[in-house]
Amino acid sequence: MVEKVYMQLESLNQFNKRQFKKFFGLYMKRQRAELNVTIEYVAHLADINASDFKSIESGKKSMSQTEFESICKYLYLDLFEIENIYRITHAQYLMNVFKVIDGHYPK
After folding, report:
1. Whole-number Å distance between alpha carbons of 11 and 89
2. Domains, in order of start, for the chain
3. pLDDT tens-place string over residues 37-88
């Protein structure tokens, strides 16, 4: 039995939504490849349109909390890995803020 996801998508991508979507999509794609399943198969299980699923996986489309939970469930995504994605995108956000504040901040 797969554990229910207890993460709120809104809090995970609050700082850098575009980067979170991109990294999360890469994680989805990697996990789907490891499971050796098609986009259509997982989309069907998660009750998501296959083209929407593909757009989510490519980081181009936002997902709802329900879609997020379904994707995590059917791709057996590790919550620790998702937290790491959050940390990476949060750090990128902070670096971007520092660049705005300090014009001499390393690029």
Report:
1. 12
2. 17-101 (1.10.260.40)
3. 999 999 999 999 999 999 999 999 988 889 999 999 999 998 888 888 888 8
Q: Say which residues have a Cβ less than 8 Å from residue 26's Cβ, sequence separation at least 6.
A: 59
Residue 63: closest CA among 82, 81, 78, 38: 82
Question: For the whole model, what pTM was predicted?
Answer: 0.77
Q: Could you give phi then psi for residue 78, rounded to 5 degrees?
A: -80, 125
- DSSP assignment of 52-82 equals HHHHHHTT-S---HHHHHHHHHHTT--HHHH
CB under 8 Å to 51, separation ≥6 — which residues?
A: none
pLDDT at 20: 85
Residue 11: its pLDDT value, please? 66
The pair of structure tokens assigned to 32 is 């789907």
Q: How far apart are CA 47 and CA 28, in angstroms?
A: 16
Q: Return the pLDDT at 104.
A: 67
User: Reduced to 3 states, what is the DSSP secondary structure of residue 32?
Assistant: helix
